[in-house]
């Protein structure tokens, strides 16, 4: 049962968008930018992992504060936070693997455990993992913590499949996309929980986007198309900008109200 504080906070409007086709398109675009932008800043611009991590973490914190201060879902601060948390999640994985020499198997397992723990704490506190009732500050903080771990996990899992298991970036993207398709089919025909299906798909879109980004940006000799991190990042950022502008004007993904209980 919610306490008095939760009941009072439940009058707030939902802080996340409706899950539409636009949601999934921007999510994949953001995950691709997270992969390519991290490489662009750390390697191409020679900032290094440490400086890039500090700068992007600071930018993410500023964006998150703006998102938390908003009284309802607003496309610009929300999706800016998603893009930046995607970059930060990538950098966390890269720092552990490239900077500290931790194996991809270890980071994948560790991030999976951290995500499960975040979900467990969230459910224990709120009795729901639904994104349709992100109507209190506490639920929003649990939400963004889970999002961060999904991005870090997706980065490690994507690199594990593409590099450690030697599937390559293109084939890895296809494998993870097939997993999403299976999840959707299971949701349609096996009546699994829509909340469970959502979070499985959300986790899997991260390695899909990361693998697409690497496939486009990496040189041909490394199994990519050779577009480069600059061109790939600009292309996908442009797509995000266009869609967020459309959603800001149309408001088609706004949840007008949400119940106090999931």
From TrEMBL:
The organism of origin for this protein: Mesorhizobium hungaricum
Keywords noted in UniProt: Membrane, Transmembrane, Transmembrane helix
Any Pfam family matching the protein: DUF347
Keyword Transmembrane carried by entry: yes
Source superkingdom: Bacteria
Membrane-spanning segments: 21-41, 47-66, 73-93, 99-121, 141-161, 167-189, 196-217, 229-249
Name of the protein in question: Membrane-anchored protein
Keyword Membrane: yes
